[in-house]
């Protein structure tokens, strides 16, 4: 750990004591050249993860994120944390994240704040508080659906981009429940051409049923 002032040491000790009274995860992170590392985590947070503080503290940043967080969500989150540590004007960031707990994945509402800066106004420590959202809460369902949609877009964007403009028009018609004859009339193409497009689209996107058709169309704003 880097050298810290007596005042900062006292503030960190105060936060540690307060953290033990909270029913949320409280994490103190030390900002190093290689990235933010966990300096302290309260008992609530350690129990949720099923780990000891020593195990967490000696993990690399990469191992910590890979083991406990949804990697796709981390892809979106990490630039925000980096901006927080590098910008003198930034003080906090709020976000939702999926955490791999001892009991499986759980959604958390999280706030990360710059806790201390050095004489050069460089961030040296961050404080993160993460509160679990109850699975039965309506917000949890909405956020989980949003996360699933983002994952679907990321995982299928290359396949969708490979469709031609005409194939995207056909996919839109398929999602509306139109048959090949109706598509042919709507788009001024032959019945055979409409059928060929439908077959090619199902192959390119690996569509198994009408549910898959609708999922693609909704995800990419065709309907």
Description:
The protein is an alpha+beta fold. The protein is 53% helix and 22% strand. It contains 10 helices and 5 strands, in the order αββααααβββααααα. It has helices at residues 6-19, 43-49, 53-57, 61-68, 71-86, 138-161, 165-175, 180-187, 191-205, 210-219; strands spanning 25-32, 35-41, 92-101, 104-117, 123-132. Helix 7 (165-175) crosses helix 9, helix 7 crosses helix 10 (210-219) and helix 8 crosses helix 9. The chain is elongated.
Quick check: average pLDDT? 85
Strand and helix order: HEEHHHHEEEHHHHH
Q: Which regions have little confidence, pLDDT < 50, spanning 5+ residues?
A: none
Instruction: Kindly estimate the percentage of residues that lie in beta strands according to DSSP.
Output: 15-25%
CATH evolutionary superfamily of the largest domain: PAS domain
Strand order of the largest sheet: 2-1-5-4-3
For the record, the CATH architecture of the largest domain stands as: 2-Layer Sandwich
- State the CATH topology of the largest domain: Beta-Lactamase
Distance between the termini: 54 Å
Class from helix and strand fractions: alpha+beta
CATH class descriptor of the largest domain: Alpha Beta
Tally of contiguous helical segments: 10
Largest sheet: 5 strands, antiparallel
Can you tell me the number of structural domains? 2
Pfam family, one: GerE
Protein name: HTH luxR-type domain-containing protein
GO molecular function: DNA binding
Organism: Chitinophaga cymbidii
């Amino acid at each position: 750990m880097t050298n810290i002032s007596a005042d900062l040491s006292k503030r960190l000790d105060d936060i540690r004591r307060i953290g033990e009274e909270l029913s949320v995860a409280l994490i103190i992170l030390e900002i190093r050249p290689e990235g933010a590392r966990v300096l302290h985590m309260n008992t609530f947070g350690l129990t949720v993860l099923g780990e000891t503080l020593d195990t967490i503290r000696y993990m690399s940043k990469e191992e910590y994120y890979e083991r406990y967080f949804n990697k796709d969500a981390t892809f979106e989150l990490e630039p925000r944390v980096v901006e927080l540590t590098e910008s003198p004007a930034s003080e906090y960031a709020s976000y939702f994240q999926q955490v791999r707990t001892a009991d499986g994945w759980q959604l958390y509402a999280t706030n990360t704040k710059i806790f201390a800066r050095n004489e050069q106004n460089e961030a040296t420590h961050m404080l993160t508080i993460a509160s679990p959202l109850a699975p039965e809460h309506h917000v949890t369902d909405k956020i989980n659906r949003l996360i699933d949609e983002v994952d679907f877009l990321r995982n299928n964007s290359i396949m969708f981009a490979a469709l031609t403009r005409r194939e995207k028009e056909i996919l839109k018609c398929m999602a509306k429940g139109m048959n090949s004859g109706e598509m042919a009339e709507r788009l001024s193409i032959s019945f055979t051409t409409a059928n060929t497009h439908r077959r090619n689209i199902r192959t390119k996107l690996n569509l198994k049923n009408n549910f898959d058709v609708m999922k693609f169309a909704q995800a990419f704003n065709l309907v």
